[in-house]
Design a protein that fits this description.
4-stranded antiparallel β-sheet, about 400 residues, 14 helices, Aspartate Aminotransferase, domain 2, alpha/beta, about 40% helix, 7-stranded mixed β-sheet, Aspartate Aminotransferase, domain 1
Amino acid sequence: MKELSKIYSAVAPSATMAVDAKYKQMKADGLPVVGFGAGEPDFDTPDYIKAAGIAAIENGQTKYTPAAGTNAVRQAVAYRIKEDTGVDFDWTNIVVSSGAKACLYTAFTVLLNPGDEVIIPAPYWVSFTEQIKMAGGVPVVLETGEEQRFKITAEQLAAAVTEKTKAIVLNNPSNPTGMIYGREELAAIADVCVKNDLYIVADEIYCKLVYDGFEFTSVASLGEEVKKRCILINGASKSYAMTGWRCGYAACGDKKVARTMANVLSHSIGGIGTMNQAAMTAALRGPQDSVEAMRKVFEERRNYMVSRMNAMDGVSCLMPNGAFYVMMNISRLIGRTLGGRVINSADDFAMAFLESGLVAVVSCDSFGISNFIRWTYASSMESIKEGMDRLEKFLQS
């Protein structure tokens, strides 16, 4: 047999999906495991959204749509962006696809030529680096740490720019850290992007999940020169508990980018289910009470998890401002034996904790940082309490 594509053969598996798959298999085998791996809200999709999808099916909305999405859903996206961030996007500059992940990949495919560099702050979501490589680009990772709350500075960005730099990925609020860039921080970073003519791939999928009264700022709101360089990525998965519906979108400041993305989709993924688009339209235009209700529950869970974690010997964490993740620092555990395994890395901890403690968490080694574990509080309070109890017991093993 002839060899497969060198580019795609080099793609690393998703760490989060691998952990979730093993957790689900263990659960199916009857083991009493609890999972904190995949970032998937445990809430059901709100009834009014489900009703819109069902009605679309019953009304015969089961045919092909344009690859970029129906006019109705693209107009709904523009409406929601305006309502939430104050930014006006021409609805024809909006492209809908099967989840934010597909929109990101399509954006990188459109932006990059072989050898183009894309700057990514670390810790980063695992798919950013792989998608950039798949599109022929070169990921350039900027490291951060707890001392700077896992956020890059404008000075760091400016120092990393070369003649090959094409774009920066800005995930705000961040997966896996839950940290948020404030308006002044964003403005300084955006200024560097404008001066160096960089595209900004702004993953804002968690923008409605912010806490402590923090006011979210979309980078696209910082002026026309910034907006025209933005490809704003978002979707219905996190805020509306619609992960399985696969509804994501890209709002492009440049019409040429939007048109090219639509062309790529027309020859690859195609449009998402017509009924799914109807459901997303309802989500974006309908009442937002359910979003706020879920946000409040997430905030309560976050407070409990952080409080319990920081009361334990050997681990610690910062208080995240958004999303639904906590980064647990395990530096003090390196070299110790837990669950019958010597802990030399976050990977070792995650495996020992799953096998011995029956808790699935994600090592952040694949997120571009060592000695950290990502927990999600997109799980029931009952599961979180059980997870914290098991962590406490495991650390004493």
